[in-house]
Amino acid sequence: MPEINRRKFLIASAGAGAAGLLSTPVAVNWPELLRAAQDRPLADGAGVLVLVTLYGGNDGISTLIPYGDNAYHDARPELAYAPNEVLQLDSQLGLNPALKGLAQLWTQRQLAIVRGVGYPQPDHSHFRSMDIWQTASPAEPVSTGWIGRWLDATGDDPLRAVNIGPVLPPLAVGEKYTAAALSTTRVPPKQADRFDTIMTALGADDPSDTPAMAAVCKAYRAARTANKTFESVKPASGEHNSLAAQLATVAAAVRAGVPTRVYTVQLGGFDTHANERATQQRQLQTLDEAVTPFLRDMAGDRHGKNVVLMAYSEFGRRVAANASQGTDHGTAGPVFIAGAPVKGGFYGEEPSLSNLDRGDLKYSTDFRDVYHELLSRTVGTDPTPSVGTGRKSLGFV
Q1: Could you give the C-alpha distances from 75 to 112, 115, 276, 362, in angstroms and in order?
Q2: Is 345 left (phi over 0), alpha (psi -120 to 50) or beta?
Q3: Cα-Cα-Cα-Cα dihedral of 30, 34, 36, 41, to 10°?
Q4: Residue-wise over 46-78: b if at least 16 C-beta within 10 A, else e?
Q5: Would you state the torsion angle of the CA atoms of residues 164, 167, 170, 171, taken in this order, to the nearest 10 degrees?
Q6: From start to end of 119-218, where are the E strands?
Q7: N or C, which end of the chain has less CB nearby within 10 Å?
Q8: Measured distance CA(259)–CA(269) in Å, rounded
Q9: Residue 326: C-alpha distances to residues 8, 262, 278 (Å)
Q10: Strands (DSSP E) found in 191-326
Q11: 111 pairs with which residues across the strands?
Q12: Phi, psi (5° rounding) for residue 350?
């Protein structure tokens, strides 16, 4: 790239605000990540957190089923699961029949179920409730996510957090830094080589650069570092389960020793207002068939044995079924934590099905306490910038 073009481009970028550019997501794509794994590999014993967002408001009552409670059967006379249909965990609670793999993890004491997770003054809007979960700010809207604030507090490595997919969730956006967004679209070799040449030129220091231009150069160097990292990782081919494909990508990166500490993946389709049974079972089976092979694979890997996965949704559903054999937007629900480092079992109190808040469950565990433990025990960081003061861990890791 001719020098005059480089300077004009950097000046334009600096004029747009170097700090703003530094907070733009770093796009990473497939001929990339191994170089970082070779130059600064994931340290032995370093925890890796995988966040699975279930969009739509998963019905927690039909996921962790209180089959031994008469109030459950009374509230959902046609929608309720019979005791012999449930994967029983104890005399009161069992898993949805679609979650056979997670039931095995429970038997192996590698699945923790945090019950009644929610927040004060719950919101029934998908958008606002998911915003609350992802920003960890129930009281007022904020512009940064809980992982984004961790990124802001801990440095400028562009690969500390990676979202599988081109669109970053709000949880991954900080004021200064964001997670990298991994596109799984293959780039033709000629385009990749041309892009690398351009990024090399843009990221080269020059003594005549202004401070703002130097900041822009730093951003392009960071982007090039990210773009060079996934070189040996191959996306899963022929995978029809979208979540399984995302987790296969995560598994490949973890096995390669990529220095990423947080990965984010997602699965939608949980807004079950009508004919819930078939729809939710299908989605839960998709979850189960993605998560359990992934964790089985990770348990035998040098780096993967330190992986902890959390699956959550923005809210649960109302206790009573509606007239369409579905459920409407509710409040609290279970959060699943799984992996080899996890101390399996129940955490938090099971919400009452009869002592309700206008038809909704009363939450018993603040979701920020779950985040507190994952940040302190798995990521190995001070959780305060992300979740504030006064929070506590629950003991599942």
Answers
A1: 27, 19, 15, 16
A2: left
A3: 140
A4: bbbbbbbbbbbbbbbbbbbbbbebeebbebbee
A5: 10
A6: 161-164, 180-182
A7: N
A8: 31
A9: 58, 34, 10
A10: 229-230, 262-267, 307-313
A11: 338
A12: -70, 125
Residue 36 corresponds to which tokens in the numbers above?
């970082």
DSSP code at position 363:
P
Task: List helix spans (H) across 256-353.
Answer: 276-299
| Structure-block tokens of residue 142 | 């904020």
Tell me the C-alpha distance between 65 and 216, whole Å: 53
Residue 214 corresponds to which amino acid? Answer: A
Identify which of 395, 388, 396, 377 has the alpha carbon closest to the alpha carbon of residue 119: 388
Mean per-residue pLDDT over the chain, rounded: 86
Structural element, H or E, at residue 50: strand 48-54
| Cα Rg of the chain (Å, integer) | 22
pLDDT the model gives residue 186? 52
One-letter amino acid of 288: D
Amino acid occupying residue 361:
L
CB 329 within 8 A of CB 318: yes
Domains in the chain, CATH or no CATH each: 24-186+243-361 (3.40.720)
Task: Find out whether 276 and 161 touch, Cβ atoms under 8 Å.
Answer: no
The model scores a pTM over 0.85: no
CB of 275 within 8 A of CB of 326?
Answer: yes
Closest Cα to residue 46, out of 356, 304, 281?
304
Pairing of strands 262-267, 48-54: parallel
The 3-state DSSP class for residue 6 equals helix
Other CB atoms within 10 Å distance of the CB of residue 21: 17
- Closest by Cα among 347, 275, 262 to 309: 262
The pLDDT of residue 197 is 64
Judged on CB neighbours under 10 Å (0-12, 13-18, 19+), 187 is middle
Query: What pairs with residue 88 in β-bridges?
Result: 94
Which tokens is 339 given?
């992996």
Q: Looking at per-residue confidence, does 238 or 46 come out higher?
A: 46
Amino acid at site 282: R
Least confident of 157-171, 248-262, 268-282, 358-372: 157-171
